[in-house]
Design goal:
Layout lengths: L1 E5 L5 H10 L9 E4 L2 E4 L7 H9 L3 E5 L10 E4 L10 H7 L4 H12 L5 H10 L7 H9 L7 H10 L3 E9 H11 L3 E10 L2 E7 L5 H14 L7 E5 L5 H5 L3 E5 L3 H6 L2 E3 L5 H6 L4
Parallel strand pairs: 5-6, 5-9, 6-7, 9-10, 10-11
Antiparallel strand pairs: 1-3, 1-4, 2-3, 7-8
Helix pairs in contact: 3-4, 4-5
């Protein structure tokens, strides 16, 4: 395994202490892979002491199998809201109707895994009945931003022939915008029903929930002729866990505790470019 450590707070004393804690083999040294990212090769076992120290110093650390490299990954499947972008779109739509607290409360409960996603989405969308369609564009213009490192991560994917799939329990209006902005290959999401320029409070077709996300991952993987060990999945909420289990690595990005506990790796202090660092072997 490689021990990957990254974070803006990393300094030489950190690396020296981590090296000591890791019981690294003689002659093994940290290799720098980005401005604030390093890896230590040839780790035989994971160290709880290293993990505890890194957590205390706001450093992201991960033990990554040698087989998991950028050249071996061929498909990256990603959540959108609070993962690729900085907001939960439905919460911001609700803010246009002055009901953000009510909707955000349901969103948070769903992301923590306390209520089923389909139920939560149906309840939230129903509250949007009557909203002008123009409010969706206002959310893009006034609220929606890419999370740090998003474009760098996607550019790394392109450079390494990794196909990119956005799968979202959010809405097509925003997913298509993000797909075009980042240059993603594929996107799957929900479609809001709009009649006479107003939201009806309903979703068209089957709701994209956690199982649907996993199904889209498997479908695209099979279409591309890939094996499970060539696919990674990135998300932040409980509805991302099923798709993460279909991938060789599930990455929790600034995620809820339930997701961090079950993911292969958790990034809490770096941007999305940290995903590239996990699998880089410069």
């Amino acid at each position: 395994m490689r021990l990957v450590v990254q974070g803006s707070s990393i300094q030489l004393p950190h690396l020296m202490h981590i090296h000591q804690l890791s019981n690294a083999t003689q002659g093994s040294q940290f290799i720098q892979i980005a401005e604030h990212a390093y890896y230590l090769p040839h780790q035989e076992t994971e160290s709880d002491e290293v993990k505890a120290f890194c957590a205390s110093e706001k450093i992201d650390c991960a033990y990554v199998p040698e087989t998991q490299t950028l050249k071996n990954i061929k498909l990256a499947v990603m959540d959108m809201d609070s993962t690729l972008i900085n907001i939960e779109c439905i919460d911001e739509i609700a803010d246009m109707m002055n009901i953000k607290p009510q909707v955000a409360e349901i969103t948070e409960s769903a992301m923590r895994g306390e209520i089923e996603f389909k139920e939560s989405l149906t309840r939230r969308v129903a509250l949007l009945n009557g909203l002008e369609e123009s409010a969706l564009q206002r959310v893009i213009d006034e609220r929606l931003q890419l999370n740090p490192g998003a474009q760098i991560w996607i550019d790394v994917c392109k450079a390494n022939d990794i196909k990119t799939l956005l799968v979202s329990g959010g809405f097509e209006f925003f997913a298509n915008h993000v797909k075009a902005k980042l240059g993603l290959d594929f996107a799957e999401s929900n479609t809001l029903e709009i009649i006479n320029g107003k939201l009806t409070g309903k979703v068209l077709g089957e709701i994209v929930d956690g199982q649907a996300k996993a199904d889209f991952l498997v479908q695209k993987r099979d279409e591309l002729g890939l094996k499970p060990d060539q696919v990674i999945a990135i998300g932040d909420g409980a509805n991302d866990l099923i798709m993460m289990r279909e991938a060789v690595a599930g990455i929790a990005y600034h995620a809820k505790p339930i997701v961090q506990a079950q993911a292969s790796y958790a990034l809490n202090h770096v941007g999305l470019d940290g995903i590239a660092n996990l699998f880089s072997t410069i």
